[in-house]
Amino acid sequence: MARPTRASPPRASWKATVLALTARIRRDRVSVSAGSLAYHGFFAFFPAVIAALGVLTLVHAGAGTVHHVVHGIAKALPPGVAGVFEGAVRAATRRDEGSAVAVVIGTVVALWSATSAAAVLQQVLDVAYGVPTDRRFVARRARGVSLLALTAVLGGLAAALVVFGQAIGAAIRGAFPSGGAGFTVSWTIFRWVVASASISVLFSSYYAFGPNRKRAPWRWATPGSLLATAVFLTGSLGFSFYVSTLGSYAKTYGSFAGVAIFIFWLYLSSLAVLVGGELNAELERAGGAGAGEAAARQPSTDEGGVGSATDRPDAAPTSGEPRPAARSPAAPPALPAGRPRPAAPRAKEAGPWSP
Predict the structure, then answer these.
(1) What global pTM score does this model have?
(2) Fewest CB within a 10 Å sphere: which of 75, 255, 265, 303?
């Protein structure tokens, strides 16, 4: 009888969880997967920028609006990454706008290219969760569009609170003059908490909808999303501090310093997402979350099909049915007189590469 599925992650010891998580990270080669995800994310970034500018063009957004949005996003990015972002925007805005049909076609093509990173994200999460990576091409792309939309909404909300939080707080404080220093502190805490919660919900969405399996309950995605959020925020802040104070990328990479910084920041972000997925997968394994699904995949035992009790020779007969007689093993064929019986082959000795 299969074990009942737990409703929440188990409370295992920290030592056992950390050791198991470390083993999973080494076994699944998370660092290699993070590098692949960062590579595809870098090449999907510029089409995403072009698609966003195309959408702004379709809604007739002014040049001032685009400038403020780009400047605000650049402020939230680490030094060097902002330069790459602004350069991509300037290169995209210098293109001729053309007709609305051309803008729509260009936006669709750019979105299709941008979903490549989302498709790779699904594959690396399949590896982390130990599920088949055989999702069909169209289904993977369609799921990639959904993940890209979630990234734009939740990631945009977090970026807006981080970038424009002070301006929003100043506007709210102007509407309520009674607020003082206490309001400033409270608003700062509030916007950072909401931004962190948005990132955590985004990572939970990755873990819930990314792997090629039935969606697990949200509670199973929470531990990994919290860990991924902590690693992402800590890594981004630490890397930004390092680049602005101690880094020497400009001396090492020259004009490619911004690109190198951007790729390494994407690598840290990908690493945070994959480590969180590995933690969720380990907690599910320890808690036996898949026991119910594994039992459901077992062949039925009450329909007389393959694997049923009636197909086993040692099964007990039902009431009113005689037990079938056991078959005796067939005797070896008789050999002609005078011919010796061949010796039985010797068992092959197990070597170091034997299965």
Answers:
(1) 0.68
(2) 255
